[in-house]
Amino acid sequence: MATTTTALATTTTALATTTTALATTTTCKAQPTYYNRQPTMDAISDRVFTESVDSSNDDPSLLTVILDLSPASWYNIKDQISINEITKSLLVFMNAHLSLNNSNQVAFIASGPQGSKFLYPNPGKVYDEIRTREEDVDREPSPGLVSKEMYRQFRVVDEAVLEELNQCLKEVLATDTHKSALSGALSMALTYTNRMLTLDQSISTTTASAINSTTNMKASSNAAGGSGAAASGTAANSVSLMKARILIVSANDEDDIKYIPIMNSIFTAQKMKLSIDVAKLGTKNSSYLQQAADATDGIYLHIDDPKAIIQVLSTAFFVEPSIRPYIILPTNSNVNYRASCFITGKSVDLGYVCSVCLCIMSVIPDTGKCPACGCVFDDRVLAQLKRGPVVMSRKKRKVEGTPAVNP
């Protein structure tokens, strides 16, 4: 009996010890869970921010800069900034864009009264070899903005832009016309962008096919087929596509831009999902450039102080369109959607519209035909439109019970 009691006591002690150990284990496991609440919330927040950002931010990007060289507009702001100073800022901006990604590309187009011209890249020149100033004595020296110790890609772009810009300015001074050719420059930029995007897409497709074929060959020789298929999908998704955008720098205060080509360029940019940014100098806003930036989800800024344009370029216009939804950027809510007359080329607040092609006219054409599609207007409608307003004489109503007044 005593032996049984001793065994029961021993068993009870063992159970108590086991219970204490379990309680200790439970306490030890519960304590890290309580103190790990903050790291868990940090991990959740990190995952949210990581998944919300588009993974295509590291894709190569093409930046096309269009500089409007209208002589009258730059003469009006000669006390604020010069073409030489604006060129310095644009070159710094382009070099910064190139430094973001080794695959980034730039293009520079000058738009003058004589027409538009590619300053970089120039199809007639080869940029594979860069000659020093000592070796190339006969070449016309560019302004002292390019250093020999500059990074090769920066130097290639800077020297090409400066040399071609000097020649372009001589052509601007020699011409007598003062009309803007900005619509042509925008068409050239869209054409070059489409060519580069098509070329990049073909290269990416070829690269993806080569990667997939190589990965499939390795997967077939590997015993684990599942890992090879996963690697193939990862390799196919790693191929990136090029993004593109256009920046227009203009100081033209006149509405001499052709409306129809500008609208066609806007529709093309929308189809290509291409943003058009506008840095407007001068004293007035440009209604057509406002429409271009607003319709393509670009940025329009009227810079009052052009001396600080490098700060504006490095902040507002430096952000890629793919990450602009996550950044608070300046917006332009007062967009002027005025149209232009197809006959006179001037802005129209109230005019006539062709019912066939929606051509806008400020005056009725003498030929009675639409200047755009050639549709013949109805003579009765034209007669009603040409007829001036008729003022009807208002008859005086005699009030009953009013006594007659004797003279």
Automatic annotation (TrEMBL):
Any Gene Ontology biological process: transcription initiation at RNA polymerase II promoter
Cited Pfam families: Tfb4 (PF03850)
UniProt keyword Transcription regulation, yes or no: yes
Places the protein is found: Nucleus
Entry keyword set: DNA damage, DNA repair, Metal-binding, Nucleus, Signal, Transcription, Transcription regulation, Zinc, Zinc-finger
Cellular component GO terms held in the UniProt record: nucleotide-excision repair factor 3 complex; transcription factor TFIIH core complex; transcription factor TFIIH holo complex
Signal peptide location: 1-30
Assembly and interaction partners: Component of the 7-subunit TFIIH core complex composed of XPB/SSL2, XPD/RAD3, SSL1, TFB1, TFB2, TFB4 and TFB5, which is active in NER. The core complex associates with the 3-subunit CTD-kinase module TFIIK composed of CCL1, KIN28 and TFB3 to form the 10-subunit holoenzyme (holo-TFIIH) active in transcription.
Family note: Belongs to the TFB4 family.
Protein name: General transcription and DNA repair factor IIH subunit TFB4
Origin species: Suhomyces tanzawaensis NRRL Y-17324
